[in-house]
Amino acid sequence: MRALGNLRLRGMHTSEPRATGASAAGVLICLLAAFPFVARPAMAQTPNGRNSGRFVVVIDAAHGGDDNGARLGDAAGGQQGGQASEKSITLAMSVRLRSLLAARGFTVVTTRESNVTLDSDARAQIANRAVASAAGSACLSLHASEAGSGAHIFVSSLAPTAPTRFAAWKTAQAGYVERSTKFAGVVNSAFEQSGQGGGSGPVPATLGRASLPGIDSMTCPALAIEIAPVRTANGKVIADVTDADYQMQVVQALVNALVEWKSETDGGADTGRGASASGGGQTP
Amino acid sequence: MIPRYQKILFGVLLIASIAMAVVLVRLREKNHQQMLKGEDLAPTVAPAVAPEEQVTLMVANDSDGTLVSEAHSLPLPKDSEASARAILAKLLEIYAASGATHPVPGVARAVQQVFLLPAPVAKGAPNSAGELAVVNLSGAFADGHPSGILTESLTVESICATLHANLPNVSEVRFLVDGQQRPTLAGHADLTRTYLTAELPGTAASEGSKP
């Protein structure tokens, strides 16, 4: 990106003396030479080499509409937060996460804001359109399950490849797997540090790779976050996925991770505050 | 006064009834004897169709998201496809047991068939010695499988890893449900793609042999 930005500046600089020479053909050639770089706002940079575009977070609340997802709340016998469907839990977490990120100045795009049916291709399309002109991005697909313990962080299982201008739809994430893996490390750290200062302990997190149709088509650092009940070594449930406090702890950890990820993307200078003038809460 | 011919007719009918009763009892006893004879001929224990062999099962663990290698002994058919099906049936039997580390409800004939085919080769590429295993799961198994990325991925990975551990030629695995392609196992794990056994995640330390 930096090389392209330098090329653009050099091209514009060399065009000035030709334009003053009143040569219409020269001006036209210079404009054509500059066009490919101007037409790609994602590549635009400030003079100090830092991206001037937005940092976009895409939040995908999994399932919805006819697709209820998993039935949750049975692990704790429906005692902590009652029984619920996965689609309602993911939507509630998506709304909370969106609000907290918007308060920190992130540009947020959600795939759904209500109980609607969306297939995996539609989710990936929304995400890819949202991050197309962004300087930095992160895509999160939120899930919930009764199996396992704590938070499960999944990166696409596609073999990593170099990013290309045109990528096959079903394997578009392959060019972003390395960045997604780094992002997963940041999220994992955030979960390890979650709950400190409060009464609850950190949310145990496990990293894994999985083949997920929606994630595999996204052109951004993308993760699937699946929250499960927190269990002791003997399997007793401490916090169920239907527990609002537990959900809030997970959401807060994700916010911290995204602030950290954005600061890494920006080169460590920006902490996430005032990242975008447009604020959050956007819906497609 | 009863006429003489009526007395004779009554006596004949009585004798016929008694004779028929005796014949009926004899026939019933005869059938019962035949039935007992048939039961005696039936084997009381399952015939040992093949000697027991050592197999490696890659058993999933939900608590840490790993696969643990376990050695088991079970009789296996000579045919490799039938053998693969028997191995996977044993794996899913472990998941259906109470207290399983990766609980999945058990159903009859969860693995309907396993087909072993030569792995497809791209144009211009040298011929591969690998095999493609097509695992046909039952719809009841897929419908009853718990929903979630972790649990579904572990089921798929453990099936692929178990096939590769026992049939090292298996390099690719595809899944069908009731003979048809299905988008996901239970809403998450992609069943439309081909799984490469070389890309499977590492496994935890193996445990001792189990019967």
Number of helices of chain A: 7
Total beta strand runs of chain B: 7
Overall mean pLDDT of chain A: 77
Which class best fits the helix and strand makeup of chain B? Answer: alpha/beta
Q: Which geometry of chain A do the CA atoms define? A: globular
Give the strand tally of chain A: 10
Quote the distance from N terminus to C terminus of chain A: 27 Å
Chain-averaged pLDDT of chain B: 87
Instruction: Kindly report the CATH topology of the largest domain in chain A.
Output: Aminopeptidase
The radius of gyration over CA of chain B amounts to 29 Å
Order of helices and strands of chain A: HHEEEHEHEEHEHEEEH
Task: Please give the CATH architecture of the largest domain in chain A.
Answer: 3-Layer(aba) Sandwich
**CATH homologous superfamily assignment of the largest domain in chain A:** Zn-dependent exopeptidases
Share of residues in strands of chain B: 15-25%
Domain GerMN (chain B): 107-186
Pfam families (chain B): Germane
Protein name (chain B): GerMN domain-containing protein
